Structures are given as C-alpha cells and as structure tokens.
Amino acid sequence: MARFTKNSDRDYDVVLLGATGFTGRFAAMHLAEIDRDLKWAIAGRSGAKLTKLAEELRLKTSQNPDVIPVEFTTQSLDALAMQTRCLVATVGPFPQHGVLVFKSCAENGTHYVDINGETPSVLELIKAYEDTAKSTGAMMIPSCGVGSLPADLLTCLMVEKVKETFDCPTSAGLISVHDSRVQASGGTLNGLVTSVSSYGLRNILKAGKPWALSPIRPARPQADESRNVSKDIIERLKLAAALHQWSTSMMKLIDVRTLKIEEVFDEEIPNYVILSHTWDEEEVSFQDFQDIDVAQNMKGFEKIEEICRLARARGVDYAWVDTCCIDKTSSADLSESINSMFRYYHDAQACYAYLADMPRTRSLEKHLRNCRWFTRGWTLQELLAPAEVRFYDQDWNLLGTKESLVEIISDITGILCDVLLGKTPLWDIPVATRMAWAAARSTKRKEDVAYSLLGIFDINMPMLYGEGPKAFRRLQEEICKKDDDTSLLAWDSRRPLHSRTSVAFASSPADFAGHEKTQAITRFRNYDVGMELTSRGPRFMGRNLCMVVIPSDKDIQRPCPHGILGLAIVPKPILLPEEDNGGIIRYVLRLDIGTSTHRCGIFLEKVQPDLFRRDCNLPMALMSYKLDHLTEYQPSFIIVEDQLSYRRPDSTLWGRHKSVHVPIDKRIKISRILPRTSWDICSRLLFAPRFSTQVQALKLVVNLQPTQLELWMLCDRRHIQSSGRPRILLLDASASRSDTTDIGIQAFLRHINREEEEDHWHAVISEGFKPDSFDDSITAGLGTQRYRISALVDVRTVKLKGYDVKEFSVRFNIRPI
C-alpha cells in the first residue's frame, strides 16, 4: 500500500499484538528463534497471560521479550503504534478488533502485518486508509497468514504450471479439499458466519475477485467462465451460515487410563461416557488438570476418578467431564462447548448422574425429590439428551437408570415419560412446555438460564457473559426466527398495574410455570399462520386474531385448576353492535397450544394500525372450542416491544395522537371502515394514518324510526395543519342507486368498492370526486320526512400513562326539518 520507510527512533523493531492467542503463540516462538538482535515485545489485553508467555519463551529460547498490556481503545493503540517500527497483529475477530489496530498503524506511520483472511474487511480497510498510509509512509500488509496465503500460492503455482505445460492462460481456478484431517475451529466458523451476516454474499464475492484488493485493474473484463464457480461458492457460504451445533469440530476427552486430556475431531471421536453432576467446591479446572499432582489434592478430583473407573469397567477408553474438559479461560472454547453441550450428552455411550446430596436409603422416591440435581438449569438437557442415564448416590452406589426410574422422574420434573425415554422427539413438544420444564430450575449466572436451554431448542448463539437477563430474550428471538410455534408467547404476562411498558417475550422460564403439568396439551399446527421476528417485535400473518369480551368478575370462568392456566380467563364472544356488550372488549391472539377443551391465547390492545401491545394486566385467555369468536381483519401485525423498538417510553401512544374518536351513539351504527386496519373497536378510534393524504371513511347506518339511512363519513386530514382539526364530509350512501345524477358520489363509491386497503385523495379526485362539493352536514330522509345530520369535531386532550395525547372526537347532531 505504501513505500517502505524507516522509523528507527522507535523503542522496538516489532511488537506482536495478540501473542497469547492460538496463532500468536506460534508467532512469538518464531520471533524468539529467528534473530537474537531483534528488539521486540509482546502485547495483549491480559498482562498475566503475557508474563506467563514471556517466561515460557525465556525457558525455551533464552529470549525475554518485553510485555505491553494494552486496551483496545484508540488512545491505547495509538500509544502502542508509536513505540514500534512494525506491528504484527494476530488478534481476532478482525472486524471487531483489527480495524482500530489497522487505523492506528496507518495514522502513526507504523508498518503493519496481520493474518486477516476476511477479504471484505480488508477491502474496506484499503478504501478507508490507503491515502492515510501513503501520507505517513506506513506499509500495510494484511492477509499474510496461513488462512489466506496457501490458497494464493497454490493458485499462482497452478497458473504457472498450466502456462508451462499447455502454453495457454488460465481464466478461472477452483481449489477443493478432498481429505482433511482436521476441521475448522469454532472461531473460524463463527468468523465465516459473521462475515456472511455482516457483508452479505454479494460483497463477499465481490471482495474475492482477483483484482479486488489491487489498485491495478486488468486491461479487459474477466471472462465469465467463473460463473459456475461463483454459484458453488454461494452454496458453500449458505451452508456455512447454516451451521449449527451438530457441526462442532472438536472436543476434549480424558483418556481414562492415562488421565490425560486429548483433543479429537468429529470423524475421530471415539466412544466415551459423560458425567452429569452439580458443581461444588474445589472443582478441577482445565488448567488444574494439566498438573495431576495438584488436581489429585482437590475435592472434585474424586468425581473424575469415579467416572474413569466406571468407563474402564464398561470397556470405554474416554470420558468427558465439564469442569476439566472445557478451557473456561478461552471464550472460543467456552462458546463452542456450550453450543455443543446437548450433542456431547446425546452422543455419549452413557451418562453417569452423580447426586452428591443423595444418601444411601430405602426411601428412594422421597430423597430423590429433594436432590439439588433436579433444581439446576444445566442438568435438564443432561437428563433429556442421553439415551442412557445411570443415577448414583453420594457414595457412588447405583440407584437406577432413567428407564427404571422414569415414572418418579416424570413426576418430579413434569416431563412426560415418552419424552424422557426419547419416544416423543423434543420438537414435537410446544415451546411453552419445554420452557416450563426449566421454570423451577436455577443457574449461578443469569446468562446460563438461556445458555443451558440451547440444545433443547436446537439453537446456536454466541455467549455474552455480562448481558444478564438479555440472554434469555436473545434465546427467544432465535427461537422465533427458527420456529413459528406461537406458544412461545404463552407465558404469564401480568405486570404491576399502570406499567408503562409492554413486552412480547418472557423474562425467564418461570413465566411459563404450569404448562408442564397439563398432560392434555395439544400443538395446533397452523400452516396458514406465520410468525417472524422484526426489530419492533414478532410479526404475525394469518387470521388468528379475534375480538372478545372480558366478562365481569362474577362471570369469570377458570376451567384449569393449576399453574399459569389456573389463572386464565375464558372470554365471551363479542356482540355487534359493540354497545350491546357488557364487559371490556379486547383482541385475543390464539396460540399454538391448548388443553383438551380450550385453546390458549393472549389479550392484546391496538396501539397503531399494524401494532398491538400485550395487556400485561391480564392473565392468559382460554378460548372454548364450543364458542365461535368473531375474527378481526388484520392480515399482518406486530406485537410491539416498548423497551426495544422505540427510545421514548410513550412511543406506543403515538398511534393515539391525532386519532379520531367516534363515541357510542345508539342512533348510529358503523357498518364498514376504510381502511379496516385503521379502526380500533376497543377504543372506537380511527388511528392517524402514515400520510395525511390517505382517505379514511366510515359507513354509518342512522336509525330514524321507523326508517334507516346509510351515510358515508369521510375524514380529510389534509386540513389539520391549517385548521387544527380534520375536515369531515358526509355523503348519502343511497347515491349508489342507478338513478342518481351525482357523478362525484358515484366516482367515490366506485373507488372504495374496489376494496383497496389504502386510498389517497389524489386518486379519488382524479376519478371525478370533488371534496369541496360536500361538507360536514347533509339533508337526507325518505318520503316527506327530512333530517339535517351534522358532524361536529371537538379537540380534546387525553391523559394516558402520565402523558397528554391530543385526539379529535366526532359527535352527531340529528334534527328533523
């Protein structure tokens, strides 16, 4: 990128950043061996790890590099860059950490080398800092590592060989691996998936073209022979982006005879047994296990010895124990292991469950119920995943197997026997039921509430310790992306009265408590109803929204005696017109879960034409199969997340601002609304549309004893800015008769009868309708009796949740003339 310049006044010739990582350690060893006169240092985030590495290098090579702890901030990295002539970066992931390092070197005239193999990020760096590096004299050399160099060298050698052998140019080349001894690490796979999601396939392919990273361009366009290769690359990238837990590359296993840990890969993984237990004091970590003399003096070593003894007795050579087979100091190893945990237990030849607080007793069932093992979050998947689970008491006496104790375990956990024995697959069980299994379980860290459930829902996601309860929300979002089972929302949403926020997702598995005890739960597979995740909350498609009436306290039915459903309300079907109902009107979203007599649902309030919020002051709804409920027309809607989709706490009230309220008038019924989604039957509001040019209309039936009149009320919001209120137009709906001579009304009626969901004034006017020919009153009637009907608009301010909301209210004046 730039000419090589000397910056000899620096403290070091080379600083290796990221020296304690996998690749960094090899680079440090290489630097220690190549030149005794080299002034160099190792840098990274952990001073303790750097000091330990420096000591290792001193013992092996007599080299003693300086140690420079550094934070990944602009100020700290600038200071580091100014200390060295050349900085070698082995940090990762590069899109996250490498950009700041690259920037500091380019701006401070420090030569730079990295092993970044993600060409889209390299292309962005070149575009951003090419001119800067030229001005400071910094030579920037990205992609100088094992991840990218061999492919380039092999391509170069192949092209030269073709030219030498066949005397012809090469238009395209394809490299494939036919026999690989190892597979990509979890970090590599995570980087690949991150690249696909961050840059998109189009930009990845663009950055991968031969001349993408070069300022020199070919004299003529490249041939199209590589088109098929690009298609193959796309399919491979799609496959990589879809990788999940069953594609994990490596696991650590204990050799039960030598008590040494070995790393094995997918195709080489031997038979092994696995330990399930609750953690106690002095557990043996991965680092502790490296020194067997130290490990043997720790309390937790007995469990390792016992699992190895049981494995040897079974004729199995390997065992897996979570305390020492996961390097918890490595975020990559920890993340890979947690995402693979369900598979580890599923693939084990047998799982040995050690119940440390289970005494040797004849009262098996009584004491088994009180075991801490049944209250911990992580042991849920350890119970469900293995085909064979063998339970041992505190003295390592066999209590029985999952199969022999299945009825007791089912009673303790609420999990059906067929599920425990693997006869019913987990994906046949509703999401809410699986959540309920974990309702009474706990974990030491809040994040592990979610991470311990990943395998039960076949979900993969990165570990972010420090995010707290947000991890459980992320889990639900991933479930929403993967599964359209709406029972995900079948949780107890009750919040303190007058709460200003509403959420779509539960705060913990405890919100689902009660679903595990309902034996007759049925999964409703509505293939015509979909659910997807948006930035504002889950979106629903399909006709699964209905209108109901919440009965008065004395009429409330509670058909289920226990748990979350024991508090549920059985709503009544709505009666039309609305004023004939004797309770509160609400919307109910019917969910994919229910009992033998009722289907579960959640109560919703409408806040905008396509947005609903959950009524957190109401329990769940139980919809009787015997009752027919009126379905609301709402082809697509979102259950809004107040806390996440907007920054202001009053955001869900925006739909109420400048809405039009039509109060109940026993003389007037509403028979039609355009557009239908803008009307809220619960609050009798016509929500403000996205554009003031949109036509909103209500068809009214006016009761004039002994006759009835039909009118159209049009709401013209184009006048709000000038007059402070919308203009109301009244039209005689009887003008649709063939003998009418009012061309304007005919034009309007022709337009709205096309059932357009959204119409705008310019489109109606273009067909001959003249708004100025009408006003807010009309004279109509049958025979000799005539009436003057007027619509009056009042402006009012409504106090909602502590905020002032401006609304318009329309009232009608009917008098005979």
From TrEMBL:
Residues 272-358 form the Heterokaryon incompatibility domain. It comes from the Eukaryota. Residues 14-139 form the Saccharopine dehydrogenase NADP binding domain. Pfam families: HET, Sacchrp_dh_NADP. InterPro entries: HET, NAD(P)-bd_dom_sf, Sacchrp_dh_NADP-bd. This is Het domain protein. It comes from Colletotrichum fructicola (strain Nara gc5) (Anthracnose fungus).
